[in-house]
Amino acid sequence: MRIVLDGAKCTSLGNCEAVAPDYFEVGEDGELEILREDVPDDQLDLLKQAVAACPTGALSLVEDE
After folding, report:
1. pLDDT tens digits, 23-41
2. What pTM does this model have?
3. Contact in structure between 65 and 14 (CB atoms under 8 Å)
4. How far, in Å, CA of 52 to CA of 48, rounded?
């Protein structure tokens, strides 16, 4: 599983960073950066919370192909 960001929807509010700071960071340029795309099994619940915290629906979790 991995994290996917739709940059066109992202407003960089930082809700995801507040939930999972090891995975997301709003940079000095105001753009959201995904620090790690991989989703270990033991972090899945946390990352589901981070995705759910996104008010614009810019984040999703997808199965690796």
Report:
1. 999 999 999 999 998 999 9
2. 0.90
3. no
4. 6
Q: Which two tokens stand for residue 23?
A: 């995975």
Contact 20, 49 (CB under 8 A): yes
- The string of DSSP letters for 1-64 reads -EEEE-TTT-----HHHHH-TTTEEE-TTS-EEES--B--GGGHHHHHHHHHT-TT--EEEE--
Task: Report long-range pairs for 8-17 (Cβ below 8 Å, ≥24 apart).
Answer: 8/58, 9/56, 9/57, 9/58, 10/54, 10/56, 10/58, 10/59, 11/55, 11/56, 11/58, 13/55, 15/50, 15/53, 15/54, 15/55, 16/50, 16/51, 16/53, 16/54, 16/59
